[in-house]
Amino acid sequence: MSVxxxxxIVPVTDKSAGARFFADLLGVRVREETGPFAPVQVNADxxxxxxxxHGAQPxxxxxxxxxxxxxxxxxxxxRDPAIEYxxxxxxxxxxxxxxxxxxxxxxxxxxxGHSYELFTTVP
Length: 123
Fold this sequence. Notes:
This protein is of the alpha/beta class. 20% of the residues lie in helices and 27% in strands. It has two helices and seven strands. The strands form two sheets. The protein has a four-stranded mixed sheet, with helices on one face. Strand 2 and strand 3 (47-51) form a beta hairpin. The mean pLDDT is 95.
């Protein structure tokens, strides 16, 4: 059996708001709360469990996505001027994308300071 990441806990200030932001970004849904978690099913193998019991601890989460998913995310970002996104750490939140390794990539910051990176080709 190969190793598959099944779930990870994302520490946030408000689990419902954090889960909604992330689910809306990826175009997926927030599942019913389970214990102290607001889970978001990322794909068949991975769930992000948003937890507000210990406060926010910003992290970085990176996703390899297909072109259609990237286009859909970018469209959602461009419609909402309140969401900070950009081409990479060295450029800040410049509302641009990058083209590393011949693909496309973007960094998105959520209200708790988490950095979600999406790219179409592994950098």
